[in-house]
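Why Transposase? Reviewers of the renewal asked for a concrete example.
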Amino acid sequence: MSTFLSLLNHHGAELEPKRLNPDISRAIMAMSRCRTGALGHVQWGCQGCHHDDRTPLSCGHRHCPQCQHTNTMQWLARQEAKLLPTHYFMITFTVPAELRKMAITHARCLYSLMFSVAASVLKDFAQRKHGGDSGFTLVLHTHNRRRDIHPHLHAIVPAGFYHPRRKQWHNGNKQFLYSHRALASVWRARLLTAIHAHPLLSLPPSIPQTWVVDCRAVGRGLSALKYLSRYLYRGVLPDKDIIDISDHQVTFRYTDSQTLQSATRSLPARQFLMLILQHVLPKGLQRVRDYGLLHGSAKRKRYSIQLMLLQMARLMLPVPPPLNKPVTRRCPHCGEHLMVCVGVSRPR
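Here is what the prediction returned.
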């Protein structure tokens, strides 16, 4: 069992109910039943020795540390299907400390505005730079290295673009995409305008003039996506970073942002659990969103312009088709043949 889930089972009763919103309560219920048999079992059958086996079902909750690997692999498979062999950049949009309290009181409102504003900024920058059609993926993170509230968006942007009038694909510059200063200036102005216009949000009296937006190259093709999948879909705190549990205290390791050296932080178990659980997202809020050529509707709408552009772009470049592999595992009895899923049983 995950170390975090073990702590949740032992100290979950100590949490204050008034601090648990419905989203956190649902997450706790799902994670406490993950792989316990309470959700049902998967029936496996060996193709060689006909050995039968049953394994408990996972909860599948996006905040469950035991289900993160599956989420990572699923995201990677989806992105691989849309992969263009060009250089990729990662742009990180952050908000100052003065606005982070909104992430606790009005998470859904703030995060939705961050997505819409960041998308508009990237679309306008792409249109002004090359006037072609491109795409990008936005991923929401809510914590810093100390696991405090620090909402920010990572944008995965291919350097290449498709020129519709010329019907040509351009790989773009592999070393430079956009000016981070220009991005930060437009990001600040548009997000503050959106917050000011929102009926449930109010701006604090003082707001920094300089915001931080980072833009850096992260590699090319599938290797870049594999790196990003590990970085973007990791849990709030991996079990390997929880280094000590004693006397109702939990100590975890992190990398200090200033020195880039390893540091530790110790908290009472109840406070540690709330530190992690405060990052549970509102129900229905999409943490990962695709835009432009990478949008999911480009696959569903057969005659959409996005699908045609994506197909044309991929035909111009040697992109290998994705391989859909069946879910299998090695037989624990004979150790030679593969087992396949033959059914799922649910508790009545």
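Confidence is low (pLDDT under 50) at residues 300-306, 319-325. This is the kind of structural detail the renewal will allow us to pursue systematically.
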